[in-house]
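Course assignment 3, question 2. Fill in each field.
Student: A.L.
Task: Predict the tertiary structure for the chain below.
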Amino acid sequence: MLNSFSLCGMIDGCAEKSRTSAEFYLIVERNFREENGLRNSDRFRIKIWRGMADEINSIVEDGTLAAVKGRMKVENGEIVLIAEQVSVDRRKMTE
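Answer field:
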């Protein structure tokens, strides 16, 4: 069995910070266009732990491009995305 995800998108705000973890949102465009020609996007909440949380909090800001790999888990009936690897590009995403 395999429990993994891989997402690439734009960081959109930090949801929560603590001493040992942090959460941020990742905006990911869908692979297809709607009938009106526009692409919709999805907003995922990503949880990161310990040293990675400190590093990400210190170097990223809204609009930072990021690739995230990790695993999923269920907490209180809700799917939580846990990051195991995060790669960032400090250039801002332009539309």
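Instructor remarks: The two ends are 38 Å apart (CA to CA). The chain has one helix and five strands.
Grade: pending
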